[in-house]
């Protein structure tokens, strides 16, 4: 991996960069569509090549359970298995393991858990997760971490982040594949002092890139931004910074302003499948009756195939009939919206005009039509 910081905003911490990986170059800030099980739901990969910016995210936990990391390795790695020419980042599965709640047990060694698929028992350790991610063959892989629950008290968050640090050190020792890039993960719940402490500990271990995990799990926006600012304040300027699982447009704007380079979120596809579409004027629920005879595209001026070929009235009709094409068109538009958003953000940074762009965007997006 090569990361080049190309421009820093003169007013805030927004930054534009270039990230070179084995399957192509990424221009940051970048949004990664989520293909948890080696697919972005409802989108063929030839279309995804146009809708993604050269990278998607998959999940080691889910791929380990089905179809299995051994099978993916025998298929030639995840790129060949899913016929994807771009880059892939795999989450270690820490968040998924800890979301199992009653089905898992934490120890210093790792986490023992029961599969939600068939009830079988498994153990994830730092070493085992590194082996699973090596077998899957993603370009960027994540260290195994403990995602502390929200809410949790300061003492538990402290204990959790220290365990994450010890696991991260074991991941770093186990990691040997120079064709992959390993990122460390900062934890610490909502507590700024712990976020700062965790960032310093993870930096001391030494990774090619740094992620901030365990946010957008129920805390307020203010708590999220304060915790993020504390973590980012300690992260190296010359390494990519990745905020995990945060993806509302307004959050992306605010977190780019705070110095974040990489984002992922399930929202574009998940909300598209449920009939919610993103526009520069706000979100629309395309199922609503007001669109029954609205023959405009989902968003005027959007170049995506859904907007170029179909009307709001037609997409609404498809949803009402339960047709698969409805989710495909809405998801196609949402992914195109996110790609366009990130391109506009990057251009504004390069022009050193991000603050003005952010104010204009948020004024139109949050002040526009918002329908639940």
Uncertain stretches of 5 or more adjacent residues: none
Specify the helix fraction band.
40-55%
What is the straight-line distance between the termini? 41 Å
Helix count equals 15
Notes on the protein architecture:
With 372 residues, the chain is of the alpha/beta class. The chain has two domains: 2-265, Queuine tRNA-ribosyltransferase-like (TIM Barrel), CATH 3.20.20; 272-367, no CATH class. Helices cover 43% and strands 20% of the residues. It has 15 helices and 16 strands. It has helices spanning 45-51, 60-65, 69-74, 78-82, 94-98, 126-136, 154-174, 192-205, 221-232, 249-257, 267-273, 305-309, 312-321, 324-350, 354-367; strands spanning 2-8, 15-21, 24-28, 30-33, 55-59, 87-91, 104-106, 110-114, 121-125, 140-142, 181-186, 209-212, 241-243, 262-265, 276-279, 282-285. The strands form four sheets. It has an eight-stranded parallel beta sheet. It has a three-stranded antiparallel beta sheet with strand order 1-2-3. Helix 8 (192-205) links the parallel strand 11 and strand 12 (209-212). Helix 10 packs antiparallel against helix 15 (354-367) and helix 13 (312-321) packs across helix 14 (324-350). The longest helix is centred in the C-terminal third of the chain and has 27 residues, at 324-350. The N and C termini lie far apart (41 Å).
């Amino acid at each position: 991996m090569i990361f080049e910081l190309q421009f820093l905003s003169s007013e805030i911490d927004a930054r534009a960069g270039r990230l070179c990986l084995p399957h192509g170059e990424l221009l940051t800030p970048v949004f990664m569509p989520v293909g948890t099980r080696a697919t972005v739901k409802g989108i063929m990969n030839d279309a995804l090549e146009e809708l993604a910016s050269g990278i998607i995210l998959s999940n080691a936990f889910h791929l380990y359970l089905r179809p299995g990391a051994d099978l993916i390795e025998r298929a030639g790695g995840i790129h060949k298995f899913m016929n994807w020419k771009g880059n892939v980042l795999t989450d270690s599965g820490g968040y998924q393991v800890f979301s199992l709640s009653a089905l898992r047990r934490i120890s210093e060694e790792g986490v023992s858990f029961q599969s939600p698929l068939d009830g079988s028992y498994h153990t994830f350790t730092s070493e085992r997760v590194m082996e699973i991610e090596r077998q899957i063959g993603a370009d960027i892989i994540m260290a195994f971490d403990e995602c502390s629950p929200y809410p949790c008290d300061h003492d538990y968050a402290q204990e959790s982040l220290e365990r994450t640090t010890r696991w991260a050190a074991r991941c770093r020792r186990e990691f040997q594949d120079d064709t992959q890039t390993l990122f460390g993960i900062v934890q610490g719940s909502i507590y700024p002092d712990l976020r700062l402490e965790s960032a310093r500990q993870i930096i001391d271990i030494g990774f090619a890139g740094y992620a901030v995990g365990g946010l957008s799990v129920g805390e307020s926006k203010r708590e999220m931004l304060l915790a993020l600012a504390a973590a980012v304040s300690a992260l190296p300027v010359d390494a990519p910074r990745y905020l995990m699982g945060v993806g509302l447009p307004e959050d992306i704007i605010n977190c780019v302003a705070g110095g974040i380079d990489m984002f992922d979120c399930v929202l574009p596809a998940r909300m598209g499948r449920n009939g919610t579409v993103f526009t520069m004027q706000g979100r629309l629920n395309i199922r609503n009756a007001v669109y029954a005879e609205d023959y405009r595209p989902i968003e005027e001026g959007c170049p995506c195939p859904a907007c170029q070929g179909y009307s709001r009235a037609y997409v609404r009709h498809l949803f009402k009939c339960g047709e698969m094409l409805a989710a495909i068109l809405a998801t196609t538009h949402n992914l195109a919206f996110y790609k366009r958003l990130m391109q506009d953000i990057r251009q504004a940074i390069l022009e050193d005009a991000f603050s003005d762009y952010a104010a204009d965007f948020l004024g139109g997006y949050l002040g526009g039509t918002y329908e639940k």
